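Private note to self, pasted from the team thread so I don't lose it. Backbone tokens:
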């Protein structure tokens, strides 16, 4: 996925920013206030606004260090699924899907930077994934925020797709997603399954979706694999 726009400086918040209407309709204001209170404040206005779009899906941290590297924004999400028989205490077919989100600003981005991110994901998969029957899948999503997107980087991201089966899929799989965004140019490119790009495209209304859908579509896609 690639989207270009004309340079127009920093985008102003749209009327759709803030707490999604679907969230307001499903939880109380006390829950919303508790979530907002636990979200860090970023000195960088871009990441601060991005966090508003992510805070109801991810547990967010700032300046997170992972294997010696600092990420301006780090997020984690776990979705659990189980089947019940007669009572919730009698359950089976328990599965979970995890996602880890890493985002930071860079002075420039090169194709070699993407290769290093993929290597990092492979190392983290060895350390962070518990390989058992309950593990359905893990996604490692990397977002680089840069002044612009070189053509070779754009081509590399658009063509990128990697899903690694664990024990032939018996222990699930993990996937690496890549996103590069140039907010001042209103430009973003994302690998095919990196749906999180929407949160970083601040010049678009939060509800502007591709036909592949948002979080719900991601959940369905994850548990079908």
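Design output:
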């Amino acid at each position: 996925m690639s989207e270009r726009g004309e340079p127009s400086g920093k985008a102003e918040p749209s009327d759709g920013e803030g707490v999604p209407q679907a969230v307001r309709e499903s939880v109380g204001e006390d829950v919303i206030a508790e979530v907002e209170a636990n979200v860090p404040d970023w000195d960088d206005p871009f990441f601060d606004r991005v966090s508003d779009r992510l805070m109801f899906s991810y547990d967010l941290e700032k300046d997170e260090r992972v294997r010696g590297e600092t990420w301006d924004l780090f997020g984690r999400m776990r979705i659990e699924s189980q089947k019940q028989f007669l009572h919730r205490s009698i359950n089976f077919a328990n599965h979970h899907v995890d996602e880890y989100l890493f985002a930071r600003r860079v002075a420039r981005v090169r194709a070699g930077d993407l290769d290093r991110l993929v290597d990092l994901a492979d190392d983290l998969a060895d350390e962070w994934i518990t390989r058992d029957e309950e593990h359905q899948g893990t996604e490692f999503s990397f977002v680089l925020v840069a002044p612009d997107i070189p053509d070779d980087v754009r081509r590399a991201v658009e063509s990128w797709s990697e899903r690694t089966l664990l024990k032939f899929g018996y222990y699930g799989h993990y996937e690496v997603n890549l996103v590069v965004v140039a907010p001042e140019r209103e430009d973003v490119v994302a690998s095919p399954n990196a749906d999180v790009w929407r949160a970083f495209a601040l010049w678009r209304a939060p509800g502007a979706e591709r036909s592949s859908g948002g979080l719900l579509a991601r959940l369905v896609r994850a548990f079908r694999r």
